Amino acid sequence: MPNASRPSSTAASSPPAAGIAHLCGLLDRVAQKDRQAFADLYDATSAKLYGAVLRILRDRGSADDVLQEAYVKIWRQAAVFDAGRASPITWMVTIARHLAIDELRRQPKGYREPEEALAQAPDEGPSAQDELHQEQDAQRLYRCLDTLEDGRQDMVRLAYLEGWSRSDLATHFDQPVNTVKTWLHRALKQLKGCLAS
């Protein structure tokens, strides 16, 4: 495995969206213990994961350690990744955030990062508590998505999690655009009721 500590310059200069299909393919290969695929996956995603971890921990040393731990976990658990439930980057960031929050809980309550280090930290992001709430909300959303018919589940995920246009969805599902709009409207109404219950 590559040395998964601080993101490499390759990761920082890589495109912001490495392509969902490409990342899924890399994760498939990582599940088969392909070390080159793991190195490519790290280069494509480590900058984003490092940013998510650093926003929570506010300490570069701890963030380096947690990032390494996150990639070890990704290496071990790649086979359980389900592209039907989340995008690759969402799945990986969730792993990293959980580990960062666990690390934050282990730190002494009086722990404070020196002022100069805080001044160099990235812009203010969500707090650890906000991160937990977001993860809980995401879990509720996925549970509610599971209550939709299979076709509607896929359509909602593609539309709102992957950013597909209505015309792309119409082509993919072989339906008129107006039908797609109607299905999405009904699915969202059902989701709203589920989330409110």
TrEMBL record:
In terms of superkingdom, the source organism counts as: Bacteria
GO MF terms, alphabetically ordered: DNA binding; sigma factor activity
Give positions of region: Disordered.
111-133
Q: Which residues form the RNA polymerase sigma-70 region domain?
A: 41-107
* GO biological process annotation, one example: DNA-templated transcription initiation
PANTHER family linked: RNA POLYMERASE ECF-TYPE SIGMA FACTO (PTHR43133), RNA POLYMERASE SIGMA FACTOR SIGZ (PTHR43133:SF62)
Q: Which residues form the RNA polymerase sigma factor 70 region 4 type domain?
A: 139-191
Please give the InterPro entries that the UniProt record associates with this protein: RNA_pol_sigma-70-like, RNA_pol_sigma-70_dom, RNA_pol_sigma70_r2, RNA_pol_sigma70_r4_t2, RNA_pol_sigma_r2, RNA_pol_sigma_r3/r4-like, WH-like_DNA-bd_sf
The family assignment reads: Belongs to the sigma-70 factor family. ECF subfamily.
Does the keyword Transcription feature in the UniProt annotation?
yes
The UniProt record lists the keyword Transcription: yes
Q: What is this protein called?
A: RNA polymerase sigma-70 factor, ECF subfamily
Q: Which UniProt keywords apply?
A: Sigma factor, Transcription, Transcription regulation
